[in-house]
Design a protein that fits this description.
With about 70 residues, the protein is an all-alpha fold. Helix 1 packs across helix 2 and helix 2 packs across helix 3. The longest helix is centred in the C-terminal third of the chain and has 18 residues.
Length: about 70
């Protein structure tokens, strides 16, 4: 197999080109700081992912900016 055998290559950029976990943690820092360190980063990211997934299923027409804002509030 050679690279020239393909006309199009694609890949998921989240986690590859974009460190989205650090961005989410930075955005969540004010909320997490108010909890006095009772929630670690892994638990915070897992909770955010749960809210994000639930919103995607319930409101699939939300654009990503709206989705992130609602997930943050959740």
């Amino acid at each position: 197999m050679r690279l020239t055998d393909f006309k199009i290559l694609t890949f998921d950029c989240y986690g590859t080109l974009i460190d989205w976990e650090s961005g989410i943690l930075t955005a969540l820092r004010p909320l997490l700081g108010g909890l006095g360190g009772r929630i670690d980063h892994g638990a915070a990211l897992a909770a955010f992912a749960r809210h994000e997934s639930a919103l995607e299923a319930a409101q699939p027409s939300l654009n990503y900016r709206q989705l992130l804002a609602k997930a943050y509030r959740g």
